[in-house]
Amino acid sequence: MDMRKGNNTSATDFTFLGLFPDMKELSFLIYIIFLSYIIALSGNTILILLICLNSQLHTAMYLLLSQLSDMDLILISTTISKMVTDFQMQRRSISEIGCGRQMLFYVAITGSESILLTLMSYNHYVAVCNPLRYSVVINSSVCLQIAAFSWVVGFLNSLIHTVYTMHFSVCGSREIHHFFCEVPAVLKLSCEDTFNYEMIQFVKGVVFILLPFGLILASYSLIFLSVFHMRSSEGRNKALATCSSHLTVVILYLGPGFFACMIPSTLYSAEEGQAISLFYNILTPIYSLRNKEVMGALKKLLGVCVGSQIKSRRL
Asked: How far separated are the first and last CA of the chain, in Å rounded?
């Protein structure tokens, strides 16, 4: 199946070259991506519903986890859904406004997730190292402030970068070597000198990648020291289980983020950059459901639904 630009493509529209130049032989990979998208979409939606419906999950940790799932939903709906839809409709174009909107949400969500994951590591630090003061330090008001701070800072940062990136003049080809409007890919189309702005992007990477990594590393160093001195093996295992899922998501997020923001685009090919972006956009949202208490709540909810259906049939 060949992808076409489409009859309604405007002269100001951008064209995605996509992850795979020849989609005819690799179309099965799109269907795998689509399946992963459905799993991530449904999984995070279920997680949010479970946290809302199950009173046992109305805690600080799960409130923050629901915010992380909200961000993941917006992220995959911004990038992956566009790629899959374009493939099905045999088109590759996106308007300039659509490109700016996609960039705005992508940069906002990645920035907000970085802040939220950092603050979640502090939540885990208090839960493990100061459990008696946890309900005082991390209450519902603090959680709301953490969530609001993450969203607001992420979107303010994104608004500045999106407006500044889109103001550069585009000369010649309007073909983006990517499957969505990522800042480095769009900057390559500009005929102006973008070196100074790329340095600003590097500084932003330090603020949103290296600084959070350092704070998370400090939090988990203190957590592991505390766990190491625990006498109870049960308490030690519970503390490690509490942090393992979050730490894995941090690694899955910061790894590709470091690659995208801290390494110059001249040191890797466009295909490698796209593969890293695809890895981040798909795998991180799917991993959110790997939580013992959430899975337990899901089984309990399914058990109640099945039990009520059996009871209604008997009646």
From this structure: 53
Task: Inform me whether the pLDDT recorded for 3 exceeds 50.
Answer: no
In order of 58, 81, 93, 260, the CA distances from 124 in angstroms are 16, 33, 44, 27
pLDDT higher than 80, residue 312: no
What confidence tier does 2 reach under pLDDT thresholds 50, 70, 90?
A: very low
**What's the Cα-to-Cα distance from 213 to each of 4, 113, 150, 183, rounded to whole Å?**
42, 12, 16, 22
Q: What pLDDT is stored for residue 100 in this prediction?
A: 96
Q: How far is CA 101 from the centre of its chain?
A: 17
Question: Where do the DSSP E strands lie in 104-180?
Answer: 175-176
Cα 106 vs. chain centroid, distance in angstroms?
9
- Say how far apart CA 154 and CA 135 lie, in whole Å: 27
224: exposed, middle or buried (C-beta count within 10 Å: 0-12, 13-18, 19+)?
middle
SS3 label, residue 94? strand
How far apart CA 280 and CA 85 sit, in angstroms, is 19
With beta carbons less than 8 A apart as the criterion, state whether 74 and 81 touch.
no
Question: What does pTM read for this prediction?
Answer: 0.86
Instruction: Answer whether 134's CB lies under 8 Å from 142's CB.
Output: no
